[in-house]
Prior knowledge:
By secondary structure, this protein is an all-alpha fold. Helix content is 66%, strand content 3%. Helix 2 packs antiparallel against helix 3 (133-154), helix 2 (81-127) packs antiparallel against helix 8 (290-316) and helix 7 (245-284) runs antiparallel to helix 9 (319-341).
Amino acid sequence: xxxxxxRDRPDGAPQDPxxxxxxxWITSQQGRIAADEMxxxxxxxxxxxxxxxxxxxxxxxxxxxTASLLGVGTAGLEVPDSARYVDRLFGQADRLAMYYQRRVxxxxxxxxxxxxxxxxxxxxxxEYEVQPWVVWVFLALFFAGVGIHKLGSRRQWHRKYLxxxxxxxxxxxQFYWNLSGVVDSRSVGFAYENFLQKQDVELGxxxxxxxxxxxxxARGIDPDPVWVQWVIDQWIGEEDERGGQLAYYSFKERQNxxxxxxxxxxxxxxxxxxxxxxxxxxxxxxxxxxxxxxxxLVLMGLLPLTAGVRDTIAQKKAxxxxxxxxxxxxxxxxxxxxxxxxxxxxxxxxxxxxxxxxAALEEGAEWILMHRARPLEHQGxx
Length: 382
């Protein structure tokens, strides 16, 4: 934000055509523009920062994060204040991400459950002689779904869940980088300047939180090399132990593989059951009582609907895509661990940790973009 002031020119006049006290915004994208209002991308970025602070104040009260979430202090060394600061920020972002994830999942399952119930009510209404009030039940289910949809949209459950999870995972990388000495202690630059740089401009607020955390780093003080091995154990860990990212990604791959198999089983069972019912009705409807025919018609309509809803939920949660992503990251962490344990050269280990962090940041950017393309609360009751 530039306010024109006098310069070392005749009469102290500023450069033409500028006028004293005339305000401007100067940006790298748009150059000098009139200061009638803040550029939209900066206003949005600051709004996101303010929302994060407000959510922290409302949902993560002071004193609730009494324990370290990233294991600070277990190395028996003096922990830098900057690491404690990043650890606290991680705890806040992680807590908020889990809070909004629960809201998103509840909204997702509630809306689709209501869709199934609407389908059931509609089929019953069309096949049976029922009271007119059944129509009101259908409308009540519809407006309940619309209400959940509007509530999630207005309170931005999905957007906040993704943003806060991306922030938490980026802070995880920042924490371990700083502690292991990957980031040059004398540099005023930031090793993660390119994080989310090419994505939507409104995600830039995440990078600004990381930049603010970096300003707490003490310049010119190299961390103790002992931290490097501690970071390897804490950050990467082992595949068959809890705590490290290697075990996490391996577990999530197996978990999502099971979910995907369950989804395929449910979808195929419902579809083939519906086809079987259709064959029974086509071949032997004359031998069935009218009540049984109507019951089979209800099931024939309900089963494919259930299959479609389950498949839609799996697509919205990107189950198949996440399997490949988790498998890839598990391989990355496994390879990093192999290289790190095969060398005692601190400089080499730091280069490996830097490459690992860059891969993790890139994975975080891909994750948020993939899920932003699947807004869970915006499907309505179609």
